Amino acid sequence: xxxxSQSPSNKVTxxxxxxxxxxxxxxxxxxxxxxxxxxxxxxxxxxxxQGNSAPDKSGLPSDRFSAERTGGSVSTLTIQRTQQEDxxxxxxxxxxxxxxxxxxxxxxTRLLVL
Amino acid sequence: xxxxxxxxxxxxxxEAASLELGCNYSYGGTVNLFxxxxxxxxxxxxLLKYFSGDPLVKGIKGFEAEFIKSKFSFNLRKPxxxxxxxxxxxxxxxxxxxxTPLVFGKGTRLSVIA
Lengths: 114, 114
Hints:
The complex is a heterodimer.
Chain A: E1 5-7, E2 10-13, E3 19-24, E4 31-38, E5 42-50, E6 65-69, E7 75-79, E8 88-95, E9 104-105, E10 109-113
Parallel strand pairs in A: 2-10
Antiparallel strand pairs in A: 1-3, 3-7, 4-5, 4-8, 6-7, 8-9, 8-10
Chain B: E1 3-6, E2 10-14, E3 19-21, E4 23-26, E5 31-38, E6 45-50, E7 56-58, E8 64-68, E9 73-78, E10 87-95, E11 103-104, E12 108-113
Parallel strand pairs in B: 2-12
Antiparallel strand pairs in B: 1-4, 3-9, 5-6, 5-10, 7-8, 8-9, 10-11, 10-12
């Protein structure tokens, strides 16, 4: 079946602009995760959604970052007033409910803030 | 807090050489362990995982990993590497208690030369 999809694949923006990144998880997966992959920092957890529970936002680096998940499916990660240090690849993953659900990753959105 | 340490930043091997990539984790409870691979230009893919049972886990493409609880280790091995194994390898861990975010190591870049 279809995997996790993300859009856009690449985004170039100017410092101070807002950006929205989209993730379509695998159908039926109740858990959805956002990670960031940057040089020197590796892969960092940002936020995750589990069913109808309140999201775990503990990984968000600042209040300029937010995410929502509509209807338990598609998720949007928003970065307000982008800074150059926000440049990274933003990865989305999804998994089945239950202990040990394997996370399947999308191709990522490469964000460059000029 | 959980943490994952991958000992090698960059490994260079000739084809047919044996591979072992080190991974140690720090966590006080029961964990799930994963190795993901990222081939050049591609997204993260699951190589293998350990949840419980036999500590020797076999994955795709001839890879295996051994969970040694007393050493908090989950090293990845392959007896004979191929040029196509050139990629970045990430060790990851999450808590074995429902869906939880992954904590990743910094990754090990493997270059296989002919």
